[in-house]
Amino acid sequence: MNKYIELMRPKQWIKNFFVFGAIIFSKKFLELDSIAKVVLAFFCFCLISSSVYIMNDIKDLEQDKIHPKKKNRPIASGKVSIKSAIIEMIVLIIVSLSTAFYLNKYLLIILLIYFINNIIYTFKVKHLVLLDVISIAIGFILRVIAGGVVINVELSVWILLCTLFISLFLGFEKRKNELKCLEGDATKHRRILDDYSIKFLDDISNIVCGCTIIFYSLYTFFAYNHKYMMITNIFVIYGLFRYKYLTEIKDLGGSPTEAVLTDTGIIIDVILWGICSAAILLFT
């Protein structure tokens, strides 16, 4: 049973917390009905994203076998057969889409778009320079939109832009880490890496990092009648710079999830950001 849970990559579910963005910033995080709907949406994204991971593992089986870390994944290591993986993937898709249909028809549409986007990514776009990372970023935007749809909240264009650019930042940092770690075997694992260079990725990463800070600042300035949310900018700036430090000095850019879940600095920063944001939204 553990191998099938491992195949779902539950550690990656942290990415689906983007679904909670709308409920936090809309001040609905104390409404039980809204919380229940967002939790169900989170559940749907966990299942559908796990099905995508399984699809990727099947498609990238040969490349994963030569990757220093990915070779230990259930399919690449032989612990789970391709047939069993396909059955698990189908079950996850059915449960996810069925739950979404019950919850909100627009959530169902968003999940279908998310899944189709990932199919296109897996079989085509992942081999197209820049578009590969943009495709991943679209997935994060869809998560945020889904969180707003299920509680009927209109999202600020600034928060969507912020989501886009922080996703691009994480994606380009991951590509850079793959180039550094895999060295001569980089293109054997991921052909698109042949079209990137560490200098180019470093430059573009710096650009999107700056844009993330700008768009989050604009969001905190324009989204509310007060300007107290701008206090939270310091946590966003520190978090981005801390992540940059981890990728450059500690070589943790290959797994954004690992960096977020294991680095004390980022964990404390996220907690403080959450407490500060909640306090401002509740008492102003």
Automatic annotation (TrEMBL):
Keyword vocabulary terms for this entry: Membrane, Transferase, Transmembrane, Transmembrane helix
Gene3D superfamilies: UbiA prenyltransferase
The keyword Transferase appears for this protein: yes
A GO term for molecular function: transferase activity, transferring alkyl or aryl (other than methyl) groups
Transmembrane segments: 12-29, 35-55, 76-97, 103-121, 128-149, 155-172, 200-222, 266-283
Membrane protein topology class: Multi-pass membrane protein
GO cellular component, one term: membrane
Database matches in InterPro entries: Prenyltransferase_related, UbiA_prenyltransferase, UbiA_sf
CDD domains: PT_UbiA_2
Cellular compartment(s): Membrane
Name listed for the protein in its UniProt record: 4-hydroxybenzoate polyprenyltransferase
Lineage of source species: Bacteria, Bacillati, Bacillota, Clostridia, Eubacteriales
